[in-house]
Amino acid sequence: MSGAGTRLGVGTHFRLDGETVEVVEFASLATGMEVILKDARDRLARMSLRELLTSDRAELIHDGSGPSSADDEAFAAVVLNRLTKDEREEALERAEHVREMLTGYRSGSEDLPRPDEPRPQYAPGLPLKARYEAKAAELGVSPRSTRRWARAYREVGEAGLVSKAAQADGGLSNADPRWVETAVEVLKEYEEESRPSVKVVLEEIEARLKTKFKLVKVPVPPQTTAYRWMQELERRHPLFRLSTQRNRDIADRPKGVYGKLRPTRPGEYVLMDTTRLDVFALDPVTLRWMQAELTVAMDWYTRCIIGLRVTPVSTKAIDAVAVLYQAYRPRPVPESWPREAAWPEHGIPRGVLVETEAVHGPVTGVWGPKIAPETLIVDHGKIYLSAHLTSVCRRMGISVQPARLRTGRDKGPVERFFRTLREDLLQRLPGYKGPNIHSRGLNPEKDAFFFHHELEAIIREWIAVDYHRTPHEGLLDPHLPKVELSPAAMFEHGLARAGYIEVPRDPQLAFEFLNVTMRTVQPYGVEINGRRYNGDCLDGLRDMGGSDIDLDKRRLEFFADPDDATRIHFRDHKRVWHTLSWEHAPSLDMPLSDEALQFARRLAAKEYTYPDDRLAVALLLKRWNLGLGTSLVERRMALRLSREQAALEIPETQADAVSSLPSVARVLSLPEQPEPPAIETAQAPEAGDDDTDGLEELEEELDFYATALKDIDDDE
Questions:
Q1: Per-residue CA distances from 261 to 92, 400, 484, 489 (Å)
Q2: CA Rg, the chain, in Å?
Q3: Which residues pair with 270 in a beta bridge?
């Protein structure tokens, strides 16, 4: 068997700095072994032997015998480990036959003979040719094959006895490179198309080969071979076995090394993303099922959820800003939550305090840690790149870093959280619809039970009770890789490692997250989108509306919440905050969003020529109270639905952890409702009203449901 080394002595040739040199003499000195080199022009040079063998300047010119990593053949260990169990047993059995031919013993040594060894036809004294012929007759092969086996065994060992089919690299070693190249081109063209059949792809490959190679005939493999090659190409370029969406995601993977941000402390990187929840919710106005979206903010280092918000149908920029605000000001925990779910008010975990209950009393803090984000990682959605969110981040000193397009791994931790939320919580709630249309039940909409605010409370409590306290596989300390850490424990670890946390210094921080509108102060107050706001705090500013003053000096900053158009806020020259109320706010006992007010104005404009805001709001409330979801009839229908849902018991094997949450248990275990009050009859409409017929039908419907519900209560 040839060795892996080569002779180094006088006459050995090297390629040094691009020139061929020959070793002509060795010199042993006190500093080490040196060699004398001679080039093609008989010039001599002295060089250290160590430098000659290890330097990138020199390359040994060998005779080509023996194994080398630059050879085209695979390593012997690679060939043997690639084999299946049956192929490996076949190669080892063939090696025993070869050793018996060469030495007369299957083990290869006379010290380890078997009971019948050596057999007469393989006696060591016989010529090798006779032994080759005897083994060929025994195995039913030609003597040429046995000689080839013996030669391969001497060169490589057991790896040389592996059959060519087993040595094939990925199953495409025998395929024509032109056919493989054309097949890959066709497969890549279907990355964004609907899924074809294998037969159609093979026909297209054959047609393209005839068009692409007109002068040279490329052999077309048989059908069985072509299907086997396509199965191998499917592993590299999936097209047939996975969903088309998954195939597109695999095709869009980056070709280089996957990059990853490596946070070193809490708050260094905060991920924000929005997803459509896989559970239906109820609209409190119409009592109909509706889609819900969840927006979360996650600290990358600790995996703690520092803010979340559930919104109906779609998410706006103000919702994303509200989630970011929760990172600075987490919400307080309800009294029904367990004590271990609460974080201390100042945001530092109780694990680093000394007898917190003795100092501060019972722990009734907030639902999550307080973290001041340094860098916000978002996708390219409009709400995350809006002027509102970017201006707030700039004001708070937060760097916004958009993720790469169609690269979900840039926000991998938050995407994994959405999956954990679905698998551990959402699928155990009524109204669960599954992650896709193939997983949806027959009619999950009818099982929608929770309102949006109830669904948000359930998710928030599950995060505080379960998610923040469960060890996470992605959380570890490189110095202690075996220690399992939860997000809460990781926050304590990060606090001890970083030595500090960023905290907001302004107690009036919430105003920084509102929309800013520049307006002048008029004698009647401030007007924004047709709404007039007034207050006593404007008395010293009403004379700023004169035209003799520059407009930039007359305009002040007013902060407004789009979800509450009944008030605005501003800061005077003493840096004191004030609140102004809408002139029609006293007639309302609830917040009214700017969007709802615009909708009310459009409704009033269809019926009246000169409607004002008071009339528009009255018409909107009348429409909601009588036409949609807050009428007495629909409330009683919701009561019957809640009784039916409370009677259903979820098996403990599926929902014991979720049903133990106080928010879920409180809603699913509804007490018996008192009998509803008597229905007030509608007032008689004025003469000449066009809606008289509709009101009479509504009154008859109310009476029908009143008697029907009374009969149901009597039966119970």
A1: 48, 14, 21, 21
A2: 40
A3: 299, 376
For the chain, give me the number of helices (H) and strands (E)?
Answer: 23, 18
Of 594, 606, 599, whose CA–CA distance to 620 is shortest? 599
Identify the three-state secondary structure at position 41. Answer: coil
Strand partners, 401: 377
**pLDDT per residue over 223-259, tens digit each?**
999 998 898 888 888 888 888 877 887 777 767 666 6
Cα gap 183→424, rounded to integer Å? 43
Q: Where are the beta strands (DSSP E) in 448-549?
A: 515-520, 526-528, 531-534
Residue given tokens 């490692």 in the structure block: 497
pLDDT digits (tens, 9 = 90+) for 288-309: 788 889 999 999 999 999 999 9
Kindly report whether the peptide bond that precedes residue 118 is cis, defined as omega within 30 degrees of 0.
yes
Q: What is the DSSP string of 546-604?
A: -TTS-HHHHEEEEEEETTEEEEEEEE-TTS-EEEEEETTGGG-SS---HHHHHHHHHHH
**Helix 317-328 crosses helix 387-396 at what angle (to 10 degrees)?**
20
Query: Cα–Cα distance between 488 and 481 in angstroms, integer?
Result: 17
Question: How far is it, in rounded angstroms, from Cα 343 to Cα 488?
Answer: 9
| Contact (CB, 8 A) for 561 and 515 | yes
CA–CA gap between residue 326 and residue 684 (Å, rounded): 50
Mean pLDDT of the chain: 76
DSSP secondary structure string for all residues of 54-109: H-TTEEE---S-S--TTSSSPPHHHHHHHS-HHHHHHHHHHHHHHHHHHHSSTTS-
For residue 152, give both structure tokens: 């391969």
Average pLDDT on 673-683 reads 41
Q: What is the DSSP letter of 302?
A: T
Of the candidates 449, 466, 455, the one whose C-alpha atom is nearest the C-alpha of residue 670 is 449
Beta strand 269-276 with 375-378 is: parallel
Handedness of CA 654, 659, 664, 668 (dihedral sign): positive
Q: Which residues pair with 378 in a beta bridge?
A: 402
CA-CA distance, 640 to 634, in Å (whole number)? 10
User: Strand pairing partners for 374?
Assistant: none
pTM metric for this prediction: 0.62
Do the beta carbons of residue 102 and residue 93 sit within 8 Å? no
Contacts of the segment 108-116: beta carbons below 8 A, 24+ positions apart: none
**Lowest-pLDDT choice from 213-217, 279-283, 650-654, 711-715:** 650-654
C-alpha span between 274 and 308 (Å, rounded)? 10
Q: Which amino acid is at 72?
A: D
Give 9 or 230, the one with higher predicted confidence.
230
Is the distance from CB of 559 to CB of 568 less than 8 angstroms?
yes
Select from 488, 456, 508 the least CA-distant residue to 296.
456
